[in-house]
Amino acid sequence: MEKSLYLCTMKKITLAFVLAGSILLSSCDILTQLASQVQSVANLANCEFNLKNVSNVSVAGVNVKNLTQGNLTATDVVKLVAAYQTKQVPLAMDVNVNVKNPTTQQAALTAMDWILAIDGSDVANGVSNKGFTVKPSTTTTVPLGVNTDLGNLFSKKGVESLKNFASSFTSEGVSSKVGLRIRPQLSVGTTQVPFPNYITLEKKTGKS
Does this model's pTM top 0.85? Predict the structure, then answer.
């Protein structure tokens, strides 16, 4: 009887140590993961941000490649004129941002605020909530989907300004009329912390 009681007590003590050890190991894992997350977040401040290009651009449903390649059709003209007359000029495009990590540690990007400017005037803003990890000594392209309406902007300047804007994009997807400012966000635990200031993106010359 005493032996059985002794074995039962030892089993309970052993189980208690096992549970305590598991909790300790789990806590260590959590602390290690948290430390790694903090390091990745902090390292984002060392990254360089540049505008790679703009792709999949359409204005009032007209693909800008039709203009840059001289393939503007009668249907395209009708769409542009109709957009101007109704003062509804939908713009859709993907703005591709290069994030270069020059360090030996990975960097973590959890979200990004953006502000789009046309001819120096802010016309739209939004946020991309898709997270990205930038590996050491590499460059990662972060796409920002932009959708807005330019009706108010071009209704004051005429349909020619609308066509000029659409034709301002080069074959590389760059336009001097388009400007973008971004503000990366960092995730600290469950809290989103934005950069203190917006970054004005510029097209990086040379090889991306």
Answer: no
